[in-house]
Write a structure and sequence with these properties.
The N and C termini lie far apart (about 65 Å). Helix 1 packs antiparallel against helix 2. The protein has helices spanning about 5-40, 50-75, 85-95, 150-155, and strands at about 100, 120-130, 135-140, 155-165, 170, 190-200, 205-210, 215-225, 230-235, 245-255, 260-265, 275-280, 290, 295, 300-310, 315-320, 330-335, 340-350, 355-360, 365-370, 385-390, 415, 425-430, 435, 450-455, 460-465, 465-470, 475-480, 485-490. The chain has 3 domains: about 5-75; about 85-395, Tachylectin-2, Chain A (5 Propeller), CATH 2.115.10; about 415-490, no CATH class. It is globular, with a radius of gyration of 29 Å. Helices cover about 15% and strands about 40% of the residues. The protein has about 500 residues and is of the alpha+beta class. The strands form 6 sheets. Strands 22-23-24-25-26-27-28-29 form an 8-stranded antiparallel β-sheet, with no helix packed on it. It has a 5-stranded mixed β-sheet with strand order 14-18-17-16-15, with no helix packed on it. Mean pLDDT is about 85; it is low at about 1-10, about 25-50 and about 65-80. Strand 26 (about 460-465) and strand 27 (about 465-470) form a beta hairpin.
Length: about 500
C-alpha cells in the first residue's frame, strides 16, 4: 500500500476511534455508582477505596488520551506536510475565496547577478512541499538578450532549485544548478530545461528535457534524488521518445495505478497537447499518445497543460500561446471527468503563463507562474498567487484585474499584402489574438498567430518576426511596417 493511502486510512479511522472511547467513558461514569453498590452487596473483594484508586488512574489516562485523540480526529486531514501553523495562517490571510489573488510581494524569485547560472531569465517551474519545506525547481537561462532566438543563449539553459519554509522568502540552492548539461556525447550536452518534479516514497523524481540549440535532436529524460539537490540522471525515457516534446507534467492516478504525462509536441502546432500513460515513471509509449483538446476556448494555441487530480475530477491549468513572448497570455482553467475530454471553465484566472499549482490544504492552493510577455524573455521572473476554495469552484471566479474593452476589429477577417509578399488574411479574434493565414477563411498548422492591441483607431500587431502598426477607422485598415510604405485595404 502506498504511504499516502495508509495515512488517509488512519485519519479516517481516528474520528471513529475517538467517538468510541468517548462513549465508553460516558458509560463508565454513568454506571460507576451502581457497579460499586453491586460489588459491596455481593461482597466482592474489591473495595470502594480500590475502585477509587483505579478510577483515578483511568481519569489521568483519559485526561491525556481523549483530548489527543479528539484533536487528531478533528484536525484537517491534510496537515500541510509539516508546515508550521503560523506559516499556514499567514498564507491563508494572503489568499482569497474570489480566485487566485496575486501576492503583493511579487516576484518571489528573480534572476541572479551577471555571470551567475540564472542571470538571463527564469521559467518553467515545478513545486513540491516536503516536511514543511517548499522546493521550487525552475528552468534558468545563464545568458539571455533581447533577441527572439539565439542558439548559443539557448545552450545556457540549466535547472535550478530554491527552497523556502514559508513559500514567500526563498533561498537559492548553493549547489545550483542542480541539473546541468551532459557530457559531449550525451543527448543533453547542449542544455537541460522544463523540469517537472514529484516527491514519492522519499524520492524526488524529476522529468526534464534536454538538447536543442545547435543540436536539432532532443528528448525527454528522468532523474532522481534523495535530498532534492543531488540528482542522478537515469537517461531518456519511454518508447518512441520524439524530438519536439516539451512542457511535460506528470500526475499519478491512484485509481488506475498509472502515471499520466501531459505534454506539448511542437511539430503539431497549433494542436500540440497530448497525453501518454505508464505504470512506471519511465515506461511511456509516445507512439500511443492521446490528443488533448479543450472545448470552449477558441485560442489558436493552448499550451502549458499542468494537471491536478482530486475527488471532483481532473483540473488543468493552461495558457493561450502567442510567440515570441506570450504578450496576451492568461492562466486558464479547464475541467475533465476522465483526464482526456476537457472543457474550458475559466479563461481569466491570472495574467501570465506556464503556471504550476500546489495543493497546500483541502482549501488552500498556491499558483506559481511567469508573467505576461515574459516567455523566454530576458529577466523573466516567477510570481505567486493564492486561492481559498475548491478547484471546481474556479469556474465561476472573476479575474483579479480589469479586462480591456473589445476592439472594433474583433471578429473581422481582412486580406492584405505587405511589400512584395503574398497576401495574408488577418483573422482578428476576441481577446486580442490575430491569426495570419495564406488563404481566406483558412487557419492551418502552417500559419501562425500574433497579438493585436487596439486603442480606438490605433492598431499594433506583434508576433514572431512581425511588428506592424496602423489605423482602423471602422471601414478601412491602414497598416505599415517601420521604414516601409503604407498599405491599406477595405473590409
Amino acid at each position: 500500500m502506498r504511504t499516502g493511502a495508509f495515512s488517509v486510512l488512519i485519519r479516517k479511522l481516528l474520528p471513529l476511534l475517538g467517538k468510541i472511547i468517548l462513549c465508553l467513558r460516558r458509560i463508565w461514569i454513568y454506571f460507576y455508582p451502581y457497579l460499586v453498590a453491586d460489588m459491596i452487596n455481593y461482597r466482592i473483594a474489591y473495595t470502594t477505596k480500590q475502585f477509587a484508586a483505579m478510577w483515578k488512574r483511568v481519569s489521568r489516562i483519559n485526561a491525556v488520551l481523549i483530548p489527543a485523540l479528539l484533536s487528531l480526529a478533528c484536525s484537517r486531514p491534510d496537515q500541510s506536510n509539516g508546515l508550521a501553523s503560523s506559516v499556514l495562517e499567514h498564507l491563508e490571510q494572503l489568499g482569497s475565496t474570489e480566485g487566485f489573488k496575486p501576492y503583493e510581494g511579487n516576484p518571489i524569485l528573480a534572476t541572479g547577478p551577471e555571470g551567475s547560472f540564472d542571470a538571463g531569465a527564469l521559467g518553467s517551474m515545478s513545486i513540491v512541499l516536503v516536511d514543511g519545506v517548499f522546493h521550487l525547481y525552475y528552468e534558468t537561462w545563464g545568458v539571455r538578450s533581447d533577441a527572439e532566438w539565439d542558439a548559443s543563449e539557448y545552450e545556457s539553459l540549466t535547472i535550478g532549485h530554491a527552497s523556502s519554509k514559508d513559500g514567500l522568502n526563498w533561498i537559492k540552492d548553493p549547489e545550483n544548478p542542480v541539473l546541468d548539461h551532459g557530457g559531449e556525447a550525451d543527448f543533453d550536452h547542449t542544455g537541460v530545461w522544463d523540469p517537472y518534479v514529484m516527491y514519492e516514497d522519499g524520492i524526488f523524481k524529476m522529468w526534464y528535457g534536454g538538447g536543442g540549440g545547435s543540436q536539432p535532436n532532443f528528448g525527454w529524460a528522468y532523474a532522481t534524488s534523495s535530498d532534492g539537490t543531488h540528482f542522478e540522471k537515469q537517461g531518456l525515457i519511454g518508447i518512441g521518445n520524439p524530438t519536439g516534446v516539451e512542457d511535460c507534467h506528470v500526475v499519478f492516478d491512484k485509481a488506475s495505478g498509472l502515471y499520466y504525462m501531459y505534454y506539448w509536441y511542437g511539430w503539431d502546432e497549433p494542436e500540440g497537447l497530448y497525453l501518454v500513460t505508464s505504470p512506471t515513471e519511465t515506461g511511456f509509449n509516445f507512439n500511443n499518445k492521446i490528443p488533448i483538446r479543450i472545448s470552449g476556448d477558441s485560442s489558436y494555441m493552448k499550451k502549458f497543460g499542468h494537471v491536478l487530480r482530486d475527488e471532483d475530477g481532473w483540473h488543468m491549468f493552461y495558457s493561450n500561446f502567442v510567440q515570441p513572448h506570450c504578450p496576451n497570455s492568461f492562466v486558464r482553467y479547464a475541467f475533465s471527468e476522465d483526464g482526456i475530454r476537457w472543457e474550458a471553465k475559466n479563461r481569466r484566472l491570472v495574467r501570465g503563463h506556464d503556471s504550476e499549482v500546489l495543493k497546500v490544504t483541502n482549501d488552500l492552493y498556491m499558483m506559481f507562474s511567469s508573467p505576461q510577455n515574459g516567455f523566454d524573455r530576458v529577466d523573466c521572473d516567477i510570481r505567486l498567487s493564492l486561492y481559498h476554495g475548491t478547484l471546481k469552484e474556479l469556474a465561476t471566479k472573476p479575474p483579479y484585474f480589469e479586462l480591456p474593452p473589445e476592439g472594433s476589429l474583433a471578429g473581422k477577417k481582412i486580406t492584405l499584402a505587405l511589400g512584395e509578399e503574398e497576401p495574408l488574411t488577418f483573422h482578428f479574434k476576441p481577446e486580442g489574438e490575430v491569426i495570419l493565414s495564406e488563404e481566406w477563411n483558412k487557419e492551418d498548422p502552417y500559419t501562425f498567430n500574433a497579438y493585436y492591441i487596439q486603442n480606438e483607431e490605433h492598431l499594433r500587431i506583434l508576433g514572431e518576426g512581425i511588428d506592424l502598426e496602423g489605423n482602423y477607422d471602422g471601414g478601412t485598415l491602414h497598416l505599415w511596417e517601420p521604414d516601409k510604405e503604407s498599405k491599406e485595404t477595405n473590409n
